[in-house]
Amino acid sequence: MDPVDSAGGGRRPGLTKGGGGTSVADRPLLEVEGLHTQFRTDDGLVRAVDGVDLTIGRGEVLAVVGESGCGKSIMARSILRLIDKPGRITGGHIRVHTEDAVVDMATADGPAVRTVRGRKIAMVFQEPIAAMSPMHTLGNQLGEAVRLHEGADKKEARKRSVELLRRVGIPAPERRIDEYPFQMSGGMLQRVMIAMALSCGPELLIADEPTTALDVTTQAQILDLLRSLQQDTGMAVMLITHDLGVAAQMADRVAVMYLGRVVEDGPLDDVFRAPRHPYTKALLGSVPKLGSGSRARLTPVRGMVPSAYRRPSGCPFHPRCDAFMAGRCDVTVPTPVREPDRPGAVSCLLYEEDSA
Ligand code: SF4
After folding, report:
1. Given the CA of residue 263, which atom of ligand 1 is nearest to it?
2. Which residue range forms the structural domain that includes residue 325?
3. What's residue 247's pLDDT?
């Protein structure tokens, strides 16, 4: 498809008119294909995202899991073009399917990016306090988002902001709307961030470790809130988390990332009950299972995630893998393998035909 301006027929980077003849309901909401995001630093090149492929459908909850440093957050920020220099997207596609056009966020220009950010895809971050201005009240910040995206006047924006705060469970929203972020707890601030994200009615909410900084009780409340909002609005959610328990509570599908790549993906039950990739198996072996008894021994994933500057050759997981095949895993980069009887894919040489 040629990139064309859906409004006027002039060429615009990253914008493709129409959806290839299929209705919008039949297309995924988001398709990430061969995405590369790199950071060129004085110490060398960091390939933070190294060929990620994934899709997310309308109304679906996808959990992206993996240890810290596996590129989950950079991948999520790349989708909204929130990568700061010296980082940049160096390859691949991030196709967002809208009613009448496909926007490729990897190459889109500023106006096209703004049609997606907030309106189609919104994001909540791990540390809400860092994402908010300490100098402005909640009402100022939420109201500005509402005015920007809905064109509401000041009075209407305040009314709508109060409604949003009530919807995310802030008590006495008429009073608290005039408070500053430092007057609120971490859990309350995360609710405000979710209200801000919802203010534009997004079709996809990316939640980047939304509960990591919270205590266990507040974490459960925020997850309940996200789940009920997802069910009420029908929006899709991409949940970035290192916590497999959080993924198990929330997700329909899981994508497991290691060193900038998706190494296994599929429906939650398939991946968690019958994992295929040695990394997925190791991750699942490191967390307690319900009913396994208090004496059950947990096995942490062997070794550490390698330095971003020293990426292993071949399969990047090979220095930590219990199924390592010398002369093969340290030489050949695995490609995604799909099995006819199981949705999803796994990138491991154990599943490639000539390894048998
Ligand atoms: Fe382990 Fe080899 Fe599979 Fe990599 S390709 S996960 S090293 S068995």
Report:
1. 6
2. 269-287+311-356
3. 94
Residue 326 lies in a domain: yes
Indicate the residue among 224, 251, 278 that finishes a domain. Answer: 251
Is 301 inside any structural domain?
no
- 251: left (phi > 0), else alpha (psi -120 to 50), else beta? beta
pLDDT tens by residue, 97-119: 988 789 999 999 888 898 898 88
On whether both 42 and 150 belong to a single domain, the answer is yes
Co-location of 178 and 323 in the same domain: no
Residue 65 is assigned to a structural domain of this protein: yes
Q: What is the pLDDT of residue 132?
A: 86
Q: How far apart are CA 147 and CA 155, in angstroms?
A: 10
Is the C-beta atom of 207 inside 6 A of ligand 1?
no
Q: CATH no. for residue 232?
A: 3.40.50.300
Nearest alpha carbon, ligand 1 atom 3:
348
Best mutation site among 257, 263, 329, 355 for ligand 1, i.e. most ligand atoms within 8 A of its Cβ?
A: 329
Ligand 1 pocket, residue 318 CB under 6 Å: yes
| Runs of H (alpha helix) within 13-122 | 72-79, 110-116
Residue 5 pLDDT class (50, 70, 90 cuts): very low
Query: Of 266, 293, 263, 261, whose CA–CA distance to 278 is shortest?
Result: 263
pTM above 0.90, yes or no: no
Overall average pLDDT of the 158-182 stretch: 93
In short, whether 329's Cβ falls inside 6 Å of ligand 1 is yes
